[in-house]
Design goal:
393 residues, Rossmann fold, alpha/beta, 10 strands, 17 helices
């Protein structure tokens, strides 16, 4: 306390605390742009403000569904909602590495005077939804984002959550935000033009959430494995809806929706998956890498005595029947210790890996035995693996 200032600032301690409630719908439909379908129209809840809508569309969607853009424009014209010229961006992981993508969207926001009361509608796969979500979250500190995931993975996982990200210096999701979308519309018709490989890739995230959350859901996936392998509509839609519900349930009820802590139960199988994608130069789809990661961490859980042999065989058999190639060449390049260290850095300096204590029971550990995990990788590459994937009843 100085002679000229008798006030003691050391006694001042202001602690700011408030809560923000998040509420957004996740809707399931078909033929979203049929003028008689009011799913999208009802989401525009501020028509009196004459909001604008900017469509950003995955190049793969535009290529395989060339009628979609005309249908979209006609739909919003019919409902008297101003639609701006669409932006087509490259689909797949490449968009998250594109340094020009953000600038393209920011320029459109500036050119068309898009404000926080207008909308960006993104139609595309998980990577496109991720990247456009980051742009929407950072322009004007947040523009209303309506997501329409066009992939199985997007509809049951990446597209329904609160994360947005782009890659930076070859590091996956290095720049990102936790910002919930304004709404999510899962249109099953968007899946019709997917390749079998992309349909398969998205199933791994449903398997992941079933393994850590819900034994009954896993059993349903296992019983329907041959139908899922053929991408039968009812089985696929059931898998997508239940997978999305479990992801949403975790975000709402985990107590850590924005991942302030180190635990990442929804990242089961992901510590290695992110590295495998990088090692394959993104030749591996994200879901394919996750399937490999699920196998690795399931074998590791078995080797530590947490999973029974029968349970492990069920997991590996399910992945095998679905057609996942687990013994990918990228495995030979995987340095387990390095990948774990990078994941540790991603988590904030404290390693936290989800393992299985039985099917439907995920739990976290803070240490991994490098040698046992390396042996788990070798198991996938050996004849022992072939014995483990024998069909079980």
């Amino acid at each position: 306390m100085t002679q000229n200032n008798p006030f003691d600032y050391s006694s001042v301690n202001i602690r700011q605390q408030f809560q923000v409630s998040y509420d957004y719908p996740v809707l399931f439909t078909r033929q979203s742009f049929n003028v008689s379908n009011d799913t999208l129209f009802k989401l525009i809840d501020n028509l009196h403000e004459s909001p604008k809508l900017l469509p950003v569309i995955d190049s793969e969607v535009a290529k395989h569904q060339p009628e979609l853009i005309a249908q979209l424009k006609n739909y919003y014209k019919t409902h008297q909602i101003p639609v701006l010229p669409e932006i087509i961006i490259q689909g797949g992981e490449a968009c998250k590495n594109d340094e020009l993508l953000l600038d393209t969207i920011y320029q459109a926001v500036e050119t068309h005077a898009i404000d926080r009361h207008s909308y960006i509608l993104v139609i595309g796969g998980g990577a496109v939804v991720d990247a456009v979500g980051f742009a929407a979250a950072t322009a004007h500190r947040g523009i209303r984002l309506i997501r329409m995931p066009s992939t199985v993975l997007g509809q049951n996982d990446a597209g329904v959550g609160v994360k947005n990200a782009i890659n930076y210096h070859k590091r996956k999701n290095y720049l990102g935000t936790f910002v919930p979308p304004f709404a999510v519309v899962n249109d099953f018709d968007l899946l019709d033009s997917l390749s079998n490989r992309d349909k398969r890739s998205g199933i791994s995230e449903a398997i992941k959430v079933a393994l850590i959350k819900d034994q009954r859901f896993f059993n349903e996936l296992y019983q329907a494995r041959h139908l899922l392998a053929q991408f039968e509509d009812v089985s696929m839609e059931n898998m997508i809806i239940k997978g999305a519900k479990w992801h949403l349930n975790h975000i709402a009820n985990s107590g850590d929706a924005f991942e302030y802590g180190s635990a990442r139960p929804l990242d089961f199988g992901h510590w290695s998956a992110h590295k495998l994608e990088e090692l394959s130069n993104n030749e591996l789809r994200h879901g394919e890498a996750v399937a490999i990661g699920i196998a690795m961490d399931s074998i590791y859980s078995f080797k530590l005595g947490y999973l029974s042999e029968h349970e492990l065989k069920q997991i590996l058999s399910l992945l095998d029947v679905l057609g996942f190639e687990l013994n990918h060449p990228a495995l030979r390049k995987l340095n387990v210790e390095q990948a774990l260290n990078e994941f540790k850095e991603h988590l904030g300096g404290r390693l936290c890996i989800t393992l299985l204590n039985g099917i439907g029971k995920g739990f976290e550990v803070n240490e991994i035995d490098i040698q046992i995990m390396a042996d788990s990788v070798k198991c996938i590459q050996s004849e022992q693996y072939c014995q483990l994937i024998e069909q079980v009843a």
